[in-house]
Write a structure and sequence with these properties.
The longest helix is centred in the C-terminal third of the chain and has 36 residues, at 214-249. Strands 6-7-8-9-10 form a 5-stranded antiparallel β-sheet. α4 runs parallel beside α5 (214-249). With 276 residues, it is an alpha+beta fold. The protein is 40% helix and 30% strand. It starts with a helix and ends with a helix.
């Protein structure tokens, strides 16, 4: 497939409904064939799916970064499900850091999200002194999760970080994507409100590194700052704009009261003009 066809596929995915990203991507792959399957699944951010580690029984999140063929690696046991013999694993040094980072973000997720699931995956790169990783966080509530009725919502954050070690200083290049889905069932007469979309931001920062374990705190700090900024942006974009539109479409005043105020205003303007 040509680069133009790949760009056309991405352009199409950006115009389709965000809540149906996974289903639409699967249909698109069926249309274009297997030649673009790997590239599309790597390029299109999808809502995260959860699975349970067969060794520890803990839940973890699946994504393209812990996938090898049709198997997914658990961050808790470092084992693939379904099992494979030639799966990719981080080096021993990086695996220890992966375990520590998973434990740290497990606490972070519990404090900030009051539940949900988090997973961290690290991998070695071909470049010397460089490794990369991804931090995944998912929180879902409402219908299909805790059975609280027709309202539901899901937050999926995907933080891909590349770490360049340079002596006692490391450069962290972060690309963060947040996928937000909110569905309000409402009353039958009012219909449904579906608020969905995603936001991507990038950042780069140099931080001191006293030892290899210091990467846990540094990665946690830059992701915490990024999530705070992205939450504020989403609050303005999603909720602020929606509120402005709703206020323009619907007034809390009755039509009679609005006409009365308009007449008073017109009368005052007329008297002021007569004084000139």
């Amino acid at each position: 497939m040509s680069e133009e066809q790949f760009d056309a596929c991405l352009d199409l995915m950006r115009r389709l409904a965000p809540p149906s990203t996974s289903a639409n991507l699967a249909r698109l792959v069926q249309i274009v064939g297997p030649s673009l399957e790997e590239e599309l699944y790597s390029a299109v951010d999808q809502p995260l799916q959860a699975s349970k580690c067969t060794v520890t029984g803990k839940e973890y999140l699946k994504c393209d970064y812990n996938r090898d063929g049709k198997s997914y690696r658990s961050p808790w046991s470092d084992q693939y499900d379904p099992p494979i013999t030639d799966g990719t694993h981080p080096s021993e040094r990086l695996r220890k850091l992966e375990i520590a980072t998973n434990e740290a973000f497990d606490v972070y997720r519990d404090l900030y999200y009051d539940g949900g699931i988090s997973s961290v995956y690290l991998w070695d790169t071909d470049e010397k002194g460089v490794f990369a990783g991804v931090v995944l966080i998912k929180k879902a509530i409402g219908a299909g999760t805790d059975g609280t009725g027709g309202d539901s919502g899901a937050w999926d954050s995907i933080h891909v970080v590349e770490v360049h070690e340079r002596g006692r200083v490391a450069t962290y290049k972060l690309t963060s994507t947040v996928i937000l889905n909110i569905l309000h069932g409402g009353q039958p007469a009012a219909g449904e409100l579906n608020l969905s979309g995603n936001l991507t931001r990038q950042a780069e920062q140099d931080l001191p590194v006293d030892d290899f374990a210091a990467h846990v705190g540094n990665i946690g700090r830059i992701i915490e700052d990024m999530e705070l900024r992205m939450r504020n942006s989403l609050h303005e974009i999603y909720f602020g704009k929606t509120k402005d539109i709703a206020n323009d479409l619907r007034s809390v005043q009755s039509l009679t009261e609005a006409r009365k105020q308009a007449n008073i205003q017109a009368e005052l303007v007329g008297k002021l003009q007569n004084r000139k």
